[in-house]
Amino acid sequence: DLERLVGTLSSTPSPSLTWYGAHRVELSGPVLARWLAKTANLLGGELSPGLFGGDAPASPPTIRVDLGRSWQGVVWEVAAVLSGWSSIDEGGADVCVVADASAAAEALAAGSAWVLAHDLAPLALSWRGGALPPGVLDALGELMAQADAVEVDPGAVDLPEAWGRVADTRDGRRLLTVGTTPGGSHALVGTLVGLWLGGGSAVVVDTGVDGRSGPEVARIAAVERARL
């Protein structure tokens, strides 16, 4: 469950996620744990469909994470799925997370209840992409206001098969690829959760970046001492 995952990551000071996109980004266990806790708290608090009371929704709340291939998108996906949310790929959703103002306007027009614009710059702490349409929230600003520890209790959640197999905890440090995999980052979620719960770590390589051929992926695996 989410609380167990965050607790395990918090006590794992070594790198838990190394992401090779346009830049190399490395997140230690405690840093990743804080991102997941903040995201889960935001979803379970201010953005929850049951925030203002009333009957519980008949089906899980929906989220659409439209952040391309990014570590930030993976954090949203993992936190949402382990919080009991259903992730969709298109159309309106209870929560839609996008990376630019035009996509935010489209999400509003599609009927999303909450739309958040997430700046993907490596060190960004708030939205820096210019004026946002009325009603669109600054995702990073909202996340920074959340507690670093999990304050919601989604309970244990079964991962759908489409979200990838849960990795064997003996896998240690694994290299995974995103970009050519059907389902994109969706298919990584189960594997990442399994690795992290077992104290392992993941090196994720975006093969959609120019020049990331098989030999380049193998070179990164060797440098990072990660098993393909």
Quick summary of this structure?
This protein has 228 residues and is of the alpha/beta class. It is 31% helix and 18% strand. Helix 1 runs antiparallel to helix 2 and helix 2 crosses helix 3.
Structure description:
With 228 residues, this protein is an alpha/beta fold. It has seven helices and nine strands. The chain has helices spanning 2-10, 29-44, 71-81, 101-109, 139-144, 189-197, 214-224, and strands at residues 15-20, 24-28, 62-66, 86-87, 95-98, 114-117, 136-138, 173-178, 201-206. It has a five-stranded parallel sheet, with helices on both faces. It has a four-stranded mixed sheet with strand order 2-1-9-8, sandwiched between helices. α6 links the parallel β8 and β9. α1 runs antiparallel to α2 (29-44) and α2 (29-44) packs across α3 (71-81). The chain is globular and about 45 Å long.
Q: Layout of SSEs?
A:
Blueprint: H1 2-10, E1 15-20, E2 24-28, H2 29-44, E3 62-66, H3 71-81, E4 86-87, E5 95-98, H4 101-109, E6 114-117, E7 136-138, H5 139-144, E8 173-178, H6 189-197, E9 201-206, H7 214-224
Parallel strand pairs: 1-9, 3-4, 3-5, 5-6, 6-7, 8-9
Antiparallel strand pairs: 1-2
Helix pairs in contact: 1-2, 2-3
